[in-house]
Amino acid sequence: xxxxxxxxxxxxxxxxxxxxxxxxxxxxxxxxxxxxxxxxxxxxxxxxxxxxxxxxxxxxxxxxxxxxxxxxxxxxxxxxxxxxxxxxxxxxxxxxxxxxxxxxxxxxxxxxxxxxxx
Length: 118
Description:
The chain has helices at about 25-45, 45-55, 65, 70-80, 85-95, 100-110. The protein is built from 6 helices and no strands. It has a domain at about 45-110. The protein is mainly α.
């Protein structure tokens, strides 16, 4: 299923407000969406999940709580980007260019910075 990151609108419900990807908050929100999608991708593939757990040392039961942390999702994106096969497979399933994974990781790396927009 391509383009999982974009919400589907239902005729009877109002469409959500567009995200302002040009703003820091919009970029951060988009990066968080990609991070969550990447974690979902990993969780959906037993061999990938086993590899992720082995490499990170996190216990499966701790993932749900950790997923609320931008720094954890940054690590998930680093994991995805660290293996070309995994990166290309995830990017295809998410309907995004592979470079967006690294862009999202970099955004989340600065997510805790207290930068003000001009």
